[in-house]
């Protein structure tokens, strides 16, 4: 039943009730002003929009309107006004008596809109984050076999419109890949599926699955699990939620790091670093200036791969200085990978500063010789002086005894140390509840990947604090996210179909008509790039064995080609790589022939 009325301010105001006509929700209503003073408190049975007409408020006031359901209501109730009224609120009562919502009214505020699911009778799965965990969960759900009435509607939300295959970001700096190959759009990847995509950022998470843990509805029944508020103002109501938001670089570690250091974890980061390197290379070519200096903070996998890639690119025109608090590089890597990396770095213009930590980064005074040239033109400032790029000074403190403090000067500083998970915070309510987070900000999960205390929320990848049988946290790597995505897809299928959920630690192989995979984390080995034609691959199934050099490079690229999201994209990238390899081979052959002829 839909009823139309007028608010006190004269706005057209609507109430939409979906449910049995004899069953009307009884709600407790409270209105407070900006200072928290209660202006109105009452309880009433909502039968029309006029029931709330007297308490909405006028246009020039900011009021907080809180509604709480006091009786069960098997339906949905929404209140909204004309968009110019800047007012919207919605309550989905479902089959529980404890749903609630809070909305704000104020002139000029962004109108809050609800995401319209195609069919509210089918399960609604919202996936936050489109990295390895989020995207591959959506694709896994699409590949499973569903009955028509239980096939879920899937919504993927990410702040970028592109999926980024992060292990291949280094190849952007070496020129081996094009951006479209490792960063296809979500629209392209999901076009053959029923999943939908929204480009937006998560603002607030409002779970309600913790309000009623009696389990009387059964694990597969469809009732609201909560809502997600996006920065655009869109409110998404879900039945099941997957937290796969990944992590961001943690730059605010030492003074100056956030202002002057470049992270390297997104496509935008890689493009910025590539642009900076191009600018430095152009400047050196134009002015024949001093050697380009690049400082890399951190010698884990990311730092070492960057050091190898950039040192090969710069050759004799630059020096790469890699700083690490440990006395070795990649301390957790297999011995074969570590030895291959040391061999490559020692053969290039790279300096390792081990046993040091960076205490501060400051901008060096500009020098007259550091003029920046863009193409053949100079960028001129207002007073017609040539713009100069900044150099940076890093202060190094010893982390080991016997070392002395050092000062480094660099044209480019790359920061690869530390990350912070992007798990959203819960909105405060009358009974504050938060996701159980560990010290790093990851959601604590049980063995089925469900967030503890929230049976309708799954967390995977960097968003999850999943532990192995020995109690250690699983590493935040792509292969962990790959496998958790398969597993989360299966457990969502099992929950919706009233089947038992499987523990991730189980060491058996699951074989059904719709799925076949290992139901535990299987460490398949570790890989790292060391340049355009060099890499190290240590498979876990052969102890002590490492492929390096050109063979390792080929093995790594083939492994990642196989891991690309869809068959169509995999085919396009495979053809592109084969074409590039053929062109490189012909060019190399021509160079060899030309050199031979010149010597004869």
From TrEMBL:
SUPFAM superfamilies in the cross-refs: FAD/NAD(P)-binding domain (SSF51905)
Key words, A-Z: FAD, Flavoprotein, NADP, Oxidoreductase
EC numbers for this chain: 1.6.5.12
One Pfam family it belongs to: Pyr_redox_2
Residues annotated as domain FAD/NAD(P)-binding: 124-485
Enzyme class: oxidoreductase
Catalytic reactions of this protein: demethylphylloquinone + NADPH + H(+) = demethylphylloquinol + NADP(+)
Required co-factors: FAD
Domain of life assignment: Eukaryota
Record-given protein name: demethylphylloquinone reductase
């Amino acid at each position: 039943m839909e009823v139309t009325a007028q608010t006190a301010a004269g706005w057209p105001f609507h109430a939409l009730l979906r449910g049995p006509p004899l069953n009307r929700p009884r709600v407790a209503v409270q209105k407070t002003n900006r200072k928290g003073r209660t202006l109105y408190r009452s309880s009433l049975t909502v039968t029309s929009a006029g029931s709330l007409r007297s308490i909405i408020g006028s246009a020039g006031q900011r009021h907080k309107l809180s509604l709480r359901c006091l009786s069960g209501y098997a339906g949905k109730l929404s209140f909204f006004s004309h968009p110019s009224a800047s007012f919207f609120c919605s309550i989905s009562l479902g089959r529980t008596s404890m749903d609630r919502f809070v909305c704000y009214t104020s002139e000029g505020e962004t109108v809050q809109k609800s995401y319209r699911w195609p069919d509210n009778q089918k399960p609604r799965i919202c996936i936050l984050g489109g990295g390895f965990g989020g995207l591959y969960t959506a694709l896994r759900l699409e590949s499973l076999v569903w009955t028509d009435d239980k096939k879920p509607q899937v919504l993927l939300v990410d702040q970028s419109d592109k999926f980024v295959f992060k292990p291949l970001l280094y190849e952007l700096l070496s020129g081996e890949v094009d951006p479209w190959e490792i960063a296809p759009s979500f629209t392209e990847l999901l076009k053959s599926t029923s999943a939908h995509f929204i480009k937006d950022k998560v603002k607030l998470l409002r779970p309600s699955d913790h309000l009623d843990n009696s389990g009387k509805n059964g694990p597969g029944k469809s009732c609201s699990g909560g809502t997600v508020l996006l920065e655009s103002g869109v409110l998404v109501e879900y039945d099941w939620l997957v937290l796969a938001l990944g992590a961001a670089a943690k730059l605010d570690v030492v003074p100056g790091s956030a202002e002057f250091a470049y992270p390297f974890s997104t496509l935008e980061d890689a493009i910025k670093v590539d642009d900076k390197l191009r600018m430095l290379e152009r400047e050196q070519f134009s002015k024949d200036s001093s050697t380009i200096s690049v400082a890399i903070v951190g010698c884990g996998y990311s730092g070492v791969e960057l050091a190898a890639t950039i040192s090969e690119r710069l050759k004799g025109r630059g020096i790469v200085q890699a700083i690490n608090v440990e006395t070795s590089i990649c301390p957790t890597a297999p011995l074969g990978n570590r030895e291959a990396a040391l061999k490559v770095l020692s053969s290039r213009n790279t300096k390792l500063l081990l046993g040091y930590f960076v205490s501060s980064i400051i901008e060096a005074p500009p020098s007259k010789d550091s003029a920046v040239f863009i193409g053949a033109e100079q960028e001129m400032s207002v007073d017609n002086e040539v713009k100069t790029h900044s150099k940076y000074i890093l202060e190094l403190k010893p982390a080991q005894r016997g070392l002395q403090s050092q000062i480094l000067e660099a044209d480019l500083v790359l920061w690869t140390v530390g990350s912070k998970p992007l798990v959203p915070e819960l909105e405060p309510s009358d009974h504050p509840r938060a996701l159980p987070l560990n010290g790093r900000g990851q959601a604590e999960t049980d063995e089925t990947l469900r967030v503890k205390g929230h049976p309708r929320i799954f967390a995977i990848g960097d968003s999850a604090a999943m532990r192995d049988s020995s109690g250690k946290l699983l590493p935040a790597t792509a292969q962990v996210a790959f496998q958790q995505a398969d597993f989360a897809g299966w457990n969502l299928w099992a929950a919706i179909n009233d089947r038992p959920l499987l523990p991730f630690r189980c060491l058996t192989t699951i074989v059904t008509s719709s799925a076949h995979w290992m139901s535990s984390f299987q460490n398949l080995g570790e890989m790292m790039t060391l340049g355009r034609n060099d890499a190290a691959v240590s498979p876990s199934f052969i102890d002590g064995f490492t492929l390096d050099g050109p063979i390792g490079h080929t093995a790594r690229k083939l492994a990642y080609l196989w891991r690309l999201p869809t068959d169509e994209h995999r085919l396009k990238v495979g053809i592109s790589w084969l074409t590039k390899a053929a062109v490189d081979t012909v060019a190399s052959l021509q160079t060899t022939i030309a050199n031979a002829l010149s010597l004869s």
